[in-house]
Amino acid sequence: MVKFLKKNYGNILILAFLALLIFPQTGTPIKVFFNRLISFSPSILSEEDRTRLEDYNWVLRDMEGNLVNLDRSRERVVIINFWGTWCPPCIAEMPSLQELYNDYGTQVDFYLVSAEDLSLIDRFMESREFEMPAFQLRSVPPDNLSYKSLPTTYLLDKQGQIVIRKTGAANWNSKSTRELLDQLLMD
Length: 187
Fold this sequence. Notes:
InterPro entries: AhpC/TSA, Thioredoxin-like_sf, Thioredoxin_domain, Thioredoxin_ResA/DsbE_sf
Strand content: 15-25%
CATH architecture of the largest domain: 3-Layer(aba) Sandwich
Protein name: Thiol-disulfide oxidoreductase
GO molecular function, one term: oxidoreductase activity
Pfam family, one: AhpC-TSA
CATH superfamily of the largest domain: Glutaredoxin
């Protein structure tokens, strides 16, 4: 038996690791950890690749159950993040979004949008002590803000130009993102 274990030690470790990934209790934290390792600062879209959000008429539900329209953020810098409580890449990038919110929350409008039930969103946010404003999806987003996978995040300037469109986990609390936000807030 010892000879068998020595001979197959690497295979046994790989199988044990894969088994850990199957169970949410162990798999999610492992996936979150690896997503954080590979998260980089999001890329800024080139001028020719940017589109303008013309239609701000988009209804969401805030955590108190009130309907909110994105129109209230017209002519403001806006970050819109589509996410899910079950999504490891979403969970991985949330701390960096929270750090950004801590410093820019009064100057930039943050929308963390999930299609899940408000009580589930609320439990998730409270359990991780996130203070960012979370919203429940109540209507179809404008065409420019479509998404096919989670997380997908948009950064809009004051004129509604989509400056960043990032699918997948990112480090939002990067120096380059902060410099971009500072620039957009001065424009």
